[in-house]
Amino acid sequence: MSINEMEIKCRELRQLQALIEEAQAEAEAIKDAIKAAMVSQEALQAGEYKVTWKPVTSSRLDAAALRKALPDVAERFTKETTVRRFTVA
């Protein structure tokens, strides 16, 4: 791919990313409006759509607290990984 073609592709990518961000922001605004209308209801029927907004409880490991309390154990179970980060600036 030539430098000119690469520049065109990068420009297209930037434009598509901007559209995605705009659509995501609009979707979040709609979700917020639906949640506001639900007040404290956990579920409702809106025509053909069933909308739920329920609390979910999960348990997660607090890695920072583990490293502070038991640094040797945390070190033994820490796994280093390498990834390639793609950015267009």
Describe the structure using short key phrases.
single chain; 89 residues; mainly alpha; two-stranded antiparallel ribbon; 2 strands; 9% strand
Domain count, please report it.
1
Can you summarize the main beta sheet? 2 strands, antiparallel
Mean pLDDT: 96
What sort of overall outline do the alpha carbons produce when their principal axes are compared? flat
Order of helices and strands: HEEHH
Radius of gyration: 22 Å
Beta fraction of the residues?
Answer: 5-15%
Would you write up a description of this structure?
The chain is mostly helical and 89 residues long. It has one domain. Helices cover 55% and strands 9% of the residues. The longest helix has 36 residues, at 3-38. A two-stranded antiparallel ribbon has the order 1-2.
Explain briefly what this protein structure is.
With 89 residues, the protein is mainly alpha-helical.
Q: Topology, please?
A:
Layout: H1 3-38, E1 43-46, E2 49-52, H2 63-69, H3 71-76
Antiparallel strand pairs: 1-2
